[in-house]
Amino acid sequence: MRKSLPFALMVALLLPGFATPAAAADSDKPAASAQAAGKDGFQLPPFPADAHVTQTATVDGRTLKYTVTVGSLPVRDEKGRTTGEVVFTAYTMAGNDRPVTFALNGGPGASSVYLNLGAIGPKKVDFGVEGDSPSERPTLHDNPGTWLGFTDLVFIDPIGTGYSRALVDDKEATKQFYSTDVDIKYLSRIMYDWLVKNGRMDARKYYVGESYGGFRGPRITEYMQTQLGVAMSGVTLISPYLDPGAWSDDTVSPLPWMTTLPSIAAAHLEREGKLSAETMAPVIAYTRGEYATTLMKGRSDPAATEAMIRKVTDLTGLDPLFVRRSGGRLETQAYLREVYRAEGKLGSRYDSNVTAWDPFPYAPRQQTGDPILNGIIAPTTTAMVHFVTQTVGWKVDGRYNALSYEVNRLWHEDDDAQEGSVKELRQAVANDPGLRVLIAHGWDDLSCPFMVSVLAVDQMPAMGDASRVQVKEYPGGHMFYARPDSQAALTADVKQLYGAK
What we know:
Organism: Rhodanobacter spathiphylli B39
Radius of gyration: 23 Å
Helix content: 25-40%
Largest sheet: 10 strands, mixed
Distance between the termini: 43 Å
Number of strands: 16
CATH class of the largest domain: Alpha Beta
Shape: globular
CATH architecture of the largest domain: 3-Layer(aba) Sandwich
Number of domains: 2
CATH superfamily of the largest domain: Alpha/Beta hydrolase fold, catalytic domain
Order of helices and strands: EEEEEEHEEEEHHEHEHHHHHEEHHHEHEH
Strand content: 15-25%
Keywords: Carboxypeptidase, Glycoprotein, Hydrolase, Protease, Signal
Number of helices: 14
Mean pLDDT: 87
GO biological process, one term: proteolysis
């Protein structure tokens, strides 16, 4: 059903010219005097010194005054040579006991702009809903769901995303950066180095990751606990790509079909105005009960199969003939074309109720990209370039990669990649009785369906207080926080995780 890793697809736009720096961009280190060696042997201009600007945001009647810092940290190999440079964007406020939260998006190949300007940073714009146009001028406003009121935020762009760059060729970059295990190690070290550089090693530390950033989360947490001596107090995984194995063996195992049916049913309930935790409860119960056992029976019980096809038709609102010819097993891309076929549109795998016109409606298979994915590249790139180079004043000379297909193409999965991160999640929770984990999903997400996390967490031993690891669902899709009510609910749940008021 799914052969490649999904991109993290949260979008945010920043209105050009919105912020006039309250303090001129300054530096806390001298600019590099030598040029950096490029990955193909050419010379790259050195990154500028870290730049800062003071801004404010008003949230729930409270004015937050904070400092934005854009800068870079080196990645060095075992011989001490700088092989890459990681760019970060940090939002910090005055206070002696403020936690620090590190944020990563996914892909592999996504920068942190989506969590930064779209989800939890102090500024955001409305996005990710039906009818958005990438050519419309964005309107910036203070983010009512920002986490900055109770934690400092450090957004990290992995090598090859944002302005972060490898200083070695593609072959060496794949070896050092673009594979499952080394990705965890160098990003963990970047977090460690940021803490040391900023004198924050004794702060309470948290992690938030979205999509493949959710895959990274448990692995980074366990690696930092056991290898770097840094313990996270809490982890939030937003729409995580937690267990790739859940989509394997779809010819025999019922699991791949169990993971997507509830999200398809949720989308149907939403179109009817009936989506809620109460209406979803029987859907989940049916999926993990009668639906699973019927799929396992196969052709040995024709009566059960007939009943299952009728039930799936009822849950999804799809054409009964389509459901019958699918055997009650709803493949994601086939569903996304079928559900809006009569309108000549396609649904998005990141939120199946967000659509776009299908430019090739008579082709046997989808010939165009995802409706959400196609619309986010231009506005996010323009927004972040303006924010970094003009608002903050980090005068970098280089291309900004909001979403890098090149990194995704070069990516190498190590042998244990298909095992996901559930093993490391269990180990991290066992290692630290104080660690708390929130796994947050949108009901309608078919890229990283919520049912995968529900099934994975239900198989975990309690290890004391079972509520230390929770799965929560919210109306919406992969970017469920683009909806004000869902964002407010997520923020309330995260505050509980942090013990914030």
